[in-house]
Amino acid sequence: MSTPPDDVLAALIAREPLFHRTEFGTSRTDFERMIVEDFWETGASGRRYDRAFVLDELERRYAGGGYEDEWHCEGFRCRALGADTYLLTYTLHQGARVTRRMTLWRRDTDGWRAVYHQGTILQEDV
C-alpha cells in the first residue's frame, strides 16, 4: 500500500518495543488492552506464543515492580496495509542482543492494538 501519515508513524513508534514501554501500563489488564483477542507472537527462538501465554509471561515479568530492561530502538519503517492497519519494523538493541522486530498494528475504537508481533535475532555478520 503506502507510507502512513507522520502522526501514525509517531504513535506507533511511541508504543514500541511492544511490552517494554511501562508508560502504557504493566498490569495484565493494561496488556490485554494493547492486543487483540486473537493476538499471537513468534519469538526470537522461532516459537509461536498465543495471547494467553504472552499475558501470563508479562504478568510474571512485571509482578512486584522490580523488572528493569535497558534497550534502544532504531531504523523504524512503517507501511500501511489497509484501512487502519500498519506494519511497523525496527531494530531492538538489548545489551549485546540485537533483534529485528515487526508488529502488525490496527487502530480501532479502543485505539491502537497489536495483532501480531515477531522478533528475529540478528546474526553478527549481517
Question: Would you mind describing this structure in some detail?
Answer:
- This protein has 126 residues and is α+β, with helices and mostly antiparallel strands.
- The chain has a single domain (6-64, 72-121), classed as Nuclear Transport Factor 2, Chain: A (Roll), CATH 3.10.450.
- It has helices at residues 6-13, 28-34, 51-62, and strands at 35-42, 48-50, 72-82, 85-94, 97-108, 111-121.
- The chain has a 6-stranded mixed β-sheet with strand order 2-1-6-5-4-3.
- The mean pLDDT is 92.
| CATH structural architecture | Roll
Per CATH, the class reads: Alpha Beta
Helix content: 10-25%
| DSSP, total strands | 6
SSE arrangement, N to C: HHEEHEEEE
Biggest sheet architecture: 6 strands, mixed
What's the total helix number?
Answer: 3
CATH topology: Nuclear Transport Factor 2, Chain: A
Uncertain spans: none
What's the overall geometry? globular
Task: Identify the strand order in the major beta sheet.
Answer: 2-1-6-5-4-3
**N-C termini distance:** 28 Å
Q: What percent strand?
A: 35-45%
Q: Which structural class best describes the helix and strand composition? A: alpha+beta
What is the CA-atom radius of gyration, in angstroms?
14 Å
Mean pLDDT: 92
The number of domains: 1
